[in-house]
């Protein structure tokens, strides 16, 4: 079964072709980051318009790359949510229009299920069951995964997502949007001993997170250095390092707890922040100590992409699940509401 995957939930237009027998055939991505950077964040209306401009050319591009035509498609999957409603509607309406014209099934899938299962596209894919840490721009969650659509939420952020905290810290440090990767780069030159930020919510049991306090801590530190006339490159790098250490340490502590609590030996880490090098270094050590293993998506599939949507859609379409005639765009949609594939006549 050859499935076209379409991702338009936020600020990247992602398209991919996945074959249930041969694997990933082609994928393409257009990022709107440069356009939104002028505004310091994603402008929803501009995002929708840009998806409208880029989506059809990208679909043509992946078909060309794979040497296929539209008639070779067996199904279409698109991100139905969560995300920006206007942006979601571009992908949903395009998917439904194409599917209707081609007479093939179409299915709206969950964006975070895409992130969660992105490591399945790798040669060494994790087997079920596993614990997943989803760390992206909008989510920080620990999930127990028993199978496709069997997700139990173990804990999540009570305020900001880890990626969001990275982006806000970047802004305070004078770095351009989206600052996560730039904070990480700046932190490499920082002295980990100069500042120590708190590890929120690690002093009590439980698997929830809180990252908004680290924002305040970053701001206070930036202001203190500025007042002292020490907000130079070194000072900014030291703050970035303290911030990154605090976020990474907090994530590692909770992952360790989640593995102990569930007794599972596999940890999947996905979403934009899973690209963070320091996080990977620390997890390698801590997860290794528990004789457990960590699985990641390849670099470009850590952030938003069409491949993860094509993959999830393929699994569910193969099992007989499909949309009715109405397209779906669901801005808020808890991951734990998902179920294993339901067969629709
Ligand atoms: P969601 O998936 O929750 O809807 P999103 O799609 O915006 O949110 P992703 O595209 O998965 O999120 O990830 C983007 C986030 O990852 C941004 O907040 C970005 O700063 C962060 N990020 C990317 N690379 C790194 C890195 N190396 N270190 C820290 N953060 C990073
Ligand atoms: Mg994004
Ligand atoms: Fe995402």
UniProtKB/TrEMBL annotation:
EC number(s) on file: 2.3.1.234
Record keywords: Acyltransferase, Cytoplasm, Iron, Metal-binding, Transferase, tRNA processing
Cofactor annotation remark: Binds 1 Fe(2+) ion per subunit.
Subcellular location: Cytoplasm
Residues at which Fe cation binds: 111, 115, 304
Main location, first listed in the record: cytoplasm
Pfam entry (one): TsaD
Cofactor entry: Fe(2+)
NCBIfam families registered for this protein in UniProt: gcp_kae1, T6A_TsaD_YgjD
Function: Required for the formation of a threonylcarbamoyl group on adenosine at position 37 (t(6)A37) in tRNAs that read codons beginning with adenine. Is involved in the transfer of the threonylcarbamoyl moiety of threonylcarbamoyl-AMP (TC-AMP) to the N6 group of A37, together with TsaE and TsaB. TsaD likely plays a direct catalytic role in this reaction.
Name of the protein in question: tRNA N6-adenosine threonylcarbamoyltransferase
Source organism of this protein record: Modicisalibacter zincidurans
Gene name, Swiss-Prot/TrEMBL: tsaD
